[in-house]
Structure formats: structure tokens, C-alpha cells
Amino acid sequence: MDSKNIIIQQPQAFDLVDRKILVAGVGVGFEGTISLYVSDGHFEVESFAMAGGTSLRQFQAEITIPDNVNFELDRIFLIASDDTAGCEEAPCTKVFVPLLFAPRILENYSGYWNHTVQNGETLSSIAQHYYNDSSMWKAIYRANTNTINNSDIIFPGQNLRILRVD
User: Residue 90 has what pLDDT?
Assistant: First the structure.
């Protein structure tokens, strides 16, 4: 996701993220500061990164979502703003990156496997294979809402992310 002043290279749209979100990109901001927010529309966590003050420069930051922040939605947004002086007259540059908050989908999330759908598979049969519990299909669906429009329709060759707990 990008604008003329901020380019977010990591995370990408609809990436699965944990409570520690690593952000990287290129940007320029007022006094070299890029403000970062993670929000589901109900709760918001703030951070910042140092970038260029007069030209585009690489930046990286880590945003940790505290345990007491319980997002109400699986889908959250990373918002990056250059906080340019004069935002009163014109809107500041903002970049929005939609993400999926994996700990809300599956407690104790530790990563995911890639699974390529085979002919005849359903979300329930895939859940049975990975979790020994066909009712866990909802976790697979929620982790892939950007590629699955209808939980009853998946296609051979489709790549799914299967959340795992270690």
C-alpha cells in the first residue's frame, strides 16, 4: 500500500499478524516522523517510525499489541501517517493496510501452513486433517476471508493459510 509520501512494504494487505507487528517501508514525514496506528475501529494502538524529513528514506518499526487490547474484529488496519504540518488546511497523507489479527482467530497462534486445495476437499475435511476436528473449519475460513467469499465454495488449486498452534 502506498501514497506519494509513504510506501508500506511490510506487512502486505491481508497478512496474518500476531501481537508483535513488524512494519517496514519508505517514507518522508514532518520532522522525519511517520505515525503508526493499529486499529479495528474500536481499539487503537499507537507507535511511530523515523523516516526522511526532506526525502524518502527507509523506515522500520515494531508495534506490540498489549494483552489488554482485545480487538473486536478479525480485520484490523495498519495506518501510517506523515503528520505533515498544515494538515488543518488539507488532509495529511495516510496509508491504510488491512490485516488479519490471527490471535483473535485462533488462541495461541504461532504461524501457519500453506495448503493447496485438492479436488473434493471442503473446509471441514481440511480442518479434520490439520486439527482432528472438522468444526475448526471456521478458523480456516476466517484466516482466508480475503480469498474465500463463501465458506461452502473452495476450488482445487486454491491456496489456503492454515493457522497453527505449537
Answer: 65
**Domain limits for position 96:** 6-103
Q: What is the CATH number of the domain that holds 120?
A: 3.10.350.10
Same domain, 34 and 46: yes
- If one counts the domains in the chain, the total is 2
Q: What is the pTM of this model?
A: 0.88
Residue 2 has pLDDT above 60, yes or no: no
Angle value at C-alpha 1, between 146 and 79, nearest 5 degrees: 90
pLDDT of residue 151 exceeding 70, the answer is yes
Asked if the structure places residue 1 within a domain, the reply is: no
What b-and-e string marks burial along 98-131, b requiring 16 or more CB atoms within 10 Å of the CB?
ebbbbbbbbeebeebeebebeeebebbebbeeeb
Residue 47 has a CB neighbour count (10 Å cut-off) of 15
Query: Which of the four pLDDT bands, split at 50, 70 and 90, describes residue 85?
Result: low
For 162, other C-beta atoms within 10 Å of its C-beta total 20
Q: Within this chain, do residues 39 and 92 fall inside the same structural domain, yes or no?
A: yes
Q: What DSSP character marks residue 26?
A: E
- Of the candidates 143, 136, 133, the residue with the CA atom closest to the CA atom of residue 103: 143
